[in-house]
Amino acid sequence: MPPTISIVITVYNRSRYLNAAIESVLQQTRHDFELIIWDDGSTDNSVDIARHYAKQDRRVRVVAAEHQGATRSLKDAFSMTTGTYVGWVDSDDILAPTALLETAAVLDANPEIGLVYTDYIVIDENNKVIASGKRCKIPYCKDRILVDFMTFHFRLIRRSVFEQAGGIDESCQLVQDYDICLRLSEVTQVQHLQQPLYYYRQHPQSITHQHTLELILSSKDAIARALQRRGLAERYEIKVEIVGHYYLQRKNINDCANG
After folding, report:
1. End-to-end CA distance of the chain, in Å?
2. Distances from the Cα of 51 to the Cαs of 54, 57, 147, 217, 231, in angstroms?
3. Contact 106, 193 (CB under 8 A)
4. Do residues 56 and 87 lie in contact, with contact meaning Cβ atoms separated by under 8 Å?
5. Rounded distance between C-alpha atoms, residue 156 and residue 113, angstroms
6. Measured between alpha carbons, how far is 119 from 199 in angstroms, rounded to an integer?
7. Torsion, CA 8, CA 181, CA 116, CA 188, rounded to 10
8. What residues contact residue 212 under an 8 Å CB cut-off, 6+ apart?
């Protein structure tokens, strides 16, 4: 029997956090899932970590691929899944123990719903809680998602709807999650499960931290495509304000002496 749920983790040089991400999936209170770990040509020991868990748990499958980028890796990983419901966990994040149980229950009970998403908590490099996710406070709305990405984490998606929406678009570098959520909002009902079932990690090596401007501009492109699909491009165009924040910081005494 194929598993009900397929979870994907794509990883590229995330050995510091990968154990916690994998274990958070394997410790789920709902057990009928498979875990696909796709290593995108890591140069650290990420693939060794993944294979260690695959030896211990038959639900884990590992693919060690050549480096091709996060979005293509995610698309290829999803092509290997077999579950009725699909979702993914970032390799530096953590899934709460009841996340699959509670999100799958929504899809089990409501066939008209194609996407269910949860609240999330922000943590730091050492798993210390920083804050509740700001996006959790934004109510879901098919129109508002054009400017506010509230369907952030964790997401479980009905496979039939995921395929109807076209799956992962590999041309959407950096914002593949926002792009698929925009497309899903156009073909299915979406449910917000207001429980913090995902731990989103902030750290200096994260894509969000290192590629902020690219993320903003790529999101603008994804929104523009959504306006075209929705027949709204003749009436609306997306505008972006990139605001800089400036502050003074006292110099080190040695810096002053050298300057």
Report:
1. 70
2. 5, 10, 40, 36, 47
3. yes
4. no
5. 11
6. 9
7. -120
8. none
Closest CA to 225 of 164, 187, 159, 180: 180
Euclidean distance between CA atoms 180 and 110, whole angstroms: 21
The CA distance from 171 to 183, in Å, is 14
**Is 7 strand, coil or helix?**
strand
What is the C-alpha to C-alpha distance for residues 259 and 256, in angstroms, rounded to an integer? 5
Cβ neighbours around 216 below 10 Å, total: 14
How would you label 163-187 residue by residue, b for 16+ Cβ within 10 Å and e otherwise? Answer: eebebbbbebbbbbbbbbbbbbbee
Q: With H, G, I as helix, E, B as strand and everything else as coil, classify residue 181.
A: helix
Contact 190, 117 (CB under 8 A): yes
Axis-axis angle for helices 176-185, 212-229 (nearest 10): 20
Are residues 167 and 91 in contact, defined by beta-carbon separation less than 8 angstroms? Answer: no
**Full pLDDT tens readout for the chain, 259 residues:** 789 999 999 999 999 999 999 999 999 999 999 999 999 999 999 999 999 999 999 999 999 999 999 999 999 999 999 999 999 999 999 999 999 999 999 999 999 999 999 999 999 999 999 999 999 999 999 999 999 999 998 999 999 999 999 999 988 878 899 999 999 999 999 999 999 999 999 977 655 555 577 778 888 888 999 999 999 988 888 887 776 666 676 776 665 455 5
